[in-house]
Amino acid sequence: GGITSSDLVTKALEAKRAKVVGQAFAGVPLWQLGPESRYPGLPFIVFPGNVGDSKAVAEVVRRWSHPERLSTRELLLNAEKGGYAVGAFNVYNLEGVNAVISAAEEERSPAILQIHPSAWKQGGVPLLACCIAAAKQATVPVTVHFDHGSSKRDLLEIMDSGVDSVMVDGSHLGLKENIAYTKCISMVARSKNLMVEAELGRLSGSEDGLSVEEYEARLTDVNEAGVFIEETGIDALAVCIGNVHGKYPKSGANLRLDLLEELGDVCGEKKVHLVLHGASGLPRGMIRECIERGVRKLNVNTEVRKAYVDSLKEHPHTDLIHVMTSAKQAMKAVVAEKMRLFGSAGKA
């Protein structure tokens, strides 16, 4: 109440004056205590007893404990300014969500919770709601992204469900058809203030049951990239430079870094962010070279998923809680290591 607040300020905190700097909540003033007080410059919320309902105090605490979240667009803009990349980690269940959030908070890193169509098919709205709730409660910037949206129906449903960004995947289409499909979704997404990522070229490999044979893969064409960005109005471009979904061959990854540099120049000119799928299994030095050439979002799935499965094999607990805890810790270790590698640790 007002009298209690006054007594606290004048008697306990020994303030003689305070500056009113705004409102913490409608009708709830925010003061800054004067230099003579016990804690000079301390922000002090004065909560009048006749303001708000029974939930008002809790709402103020929630807002101040968990400020409004940054968008995926803002996460990547910050990464651009700081010269690092943000990890987008595929999640399938509560353990995966908790692993990413826990690693992000421990490393003080921004992060992206990413849902693949196969995970959406299995988990649906409850999985998405879990991701959104976890992102809102996180003490570091975390956003929710829908990956590889090749179904217009799925994308339209997802965009109305609270995600921060979507990937429109028309990579299986010809250039004109890909542009038309991406442009259509991009227009809807922009009306909802969502960031849009799209793919030009086609990655080989297998991810969650979706396979593209090597002979079907196609590198991103630099000239087509400029046209594609202009026509579709996307915010981020996922490029194909020899990266693959799933495991790389025993001979190792063979990325066209020269092509990535050219694509980086195009994207930089168009103010579009570079995205690289298939970051699992890439050597540390190659990851750093990709970031130096402008990659701002790196997708990680295979290594995190492998950590989960290996944990189940190596620690066959009979108690479900122990199984979940072990799996979470295994995934968290992989996620945290990637955040340090990507340069996002300490950037939240």
Automatic annotation (TrEMBL):
<dbReference type="Pfam" id="PF01116">
    <property type="entry name" value="F_bP_aldolase"/>
</dbReference>
<dbReference type="InterPro" id="IPR013785">
    <property type="entry name" value="Aldolase_TIM"/>
</dbReference>
<dbReference type="GO" id="GO:0016832">
    <property type="term" value="F:aldehyde-lyase activity"/>
</dbReference>
<dbReference type="GO" id="GO:0005975">
    <property type="term" value="P:carbohydrate metabolic process"/>
</dbReference>
<dbReference type="InterPro" id="IPR000771">
    <property type="entry name" value="FBA_II"/>
</dbReference>
<feature type="domain" description="Four-carbon acid sugar kinase nucleotide binding">
    <location>
        <begin position="1"/>
        <end position="56"/>
    </location>
</feature>
<dbReference type="Pfam" id="PF17042">
    <property type="entry name" value="NBD_C"/>
</dbReference>
<dbReference type="InterPro" id="IPR042213">
    <property type="entry name" value="NBD_C_sf"/>
</dbReference>
<protein>
    <recommendedName>
        <fullName>Four-carbon acid sugar kinase nucleotide binding domain-containing protein</fullName>
    </recommendedName>
</protein>
<dbReference type="GO" id="GO:0008270">
    <property type="term" value="F:zinc ion binding"/>
</dbReference>
<dbReference type="InterPro" id="IPR050246">
    <property type="entry name" value="Class_II_FBP_aldolase"/>
</dbReference>
<dbReference type="InterPro" id="IPR031475">
    <property type="entry name" value="NBD_C"/>
</dbReference>
